[in-house]
Specification:
Keywords: DNA-binding, Transcription, Transcription regulation. InterPro entries: GntR_C, TF_FadR/GntR_C, Tscrpt_reg_HTH_GntR, WH-like_DNA-bd_sf, WH_DNA-bd_sf. This is FadR family transcriptional regulator. With 234 residues, the protein is mainly alpha-helical. It is built from eleven helices and two strands; from the N terminus they run H-H-H-E-E-H-H-H-H-H-H-H-H. It has two domains: 64 residues, Arc Repressor Mutant, subunit A (Orthogonal Bundle); 136 residues, Four Helix Bundle (Hemerythrin (Met), subunit A) (Up-down Bundle). The two termini are 41 Å apart.
């Protein structure tokens, strides 16, 4: 295994510094000169480390103002997922299929927990979104933005900011390569019925039914993305 470079080691130490000092997004970091002295490295090394961390939203460099803890958003993660999936898909490999399977496993594994006690206001939001889908279906297509809003609202009661970001990262990744999904093959009436069944199962507090409904929801896209070799073994 290759040894980390001085800049990579400085990246690690910068992240440790943020943790040790309990810094939050937007908090100021030591100046470049202070970091140079603190870590015993040159300015070029510090700048290289800061630029690398800025690329993944760990730090934010504000020209003329200093360096601050970044947003820590998962947008680089989503971009990496999308790019990996798109490259593998265009090479004839199951990149999009794998991405979809991970998202399916995540959602099917979580929807049962939602049935334990979803607030009435969240159910109202979900039912309203299904109603919006049904209106859109009348025009021949359910908007991806409405579908995306449904899936994010579904897990709101779990009150996990990280979960919301991870789910949204998967949506963002799929959206970036949506031209390969051929969503025109998805019957909007079926899409609406599947979402309504998910809501009904959650409202009934039936975890097993909710999981089945979520799996069924993924059946259509799984069929379209499934590698031919896998289909032949069924």
């Amino acid at each position: 295994m290759a040894r980390p470079t001085t800049a990579q080691d400085t990246e690690r130490r910068l992240k440790e510094l943020i943790l040790e000092r309990r810094l939050a997004p937007g908090d100021a970091l030591p100046t470049e000169a202070e970091l140079t002295e603190l870590f015993g490295v040159g300015r070029v090394t510090v700048r290289e480390a800061l630029k690398a961390l800025q690329a993944v939203n760990v730090v934010e460099i504000r020209r003329g103002s200093g360096t601050f803890v970044g947003s820590l958003s998962l947008s680089p993660f989503a971009e990496g997922l999308a790019f990996r999936a798109a490259v593998r898909h265009r090479l004839g490999e199951p990149g999009l299929f794998e991405l979809m399977k991970v998202r399916e496993a995540l959602e099917a594994g979580l929807v049962g927990a939602v049935t334990a006690g979803i607030p009435a206001e969240d159910l109202a939001v979900l039912r309203a979104l299904v109603g919006e889908m049904e209106t859109e279906a009348g025009d021949g297509r359910v908007a991806r933005s409405t579908d995306r809003a449904f899936h994010l609202a579904l897990y709101a009661s779990l009150d996990s900011h990280l979960l919301s970001e991870v789910l949204d990262a998967f949506w963002a990744a799929m959206d970036r390569v949506r031209e390969d999904l051929d969503d025109g093959h998805q019957d909007p009436v079926v899409t609406c019925a599947q979402h309504r069944e998910i809501v009904d199962a959650v409202a009934a507090g039936d975890g097993d039914r909710a999981v089945r409904a979520m799996r069924t929801h993924f059946d259509g896209i799984r069929t379209r993305l499934e590698p031919p070799a896998d289909r032949s073994t069924e």
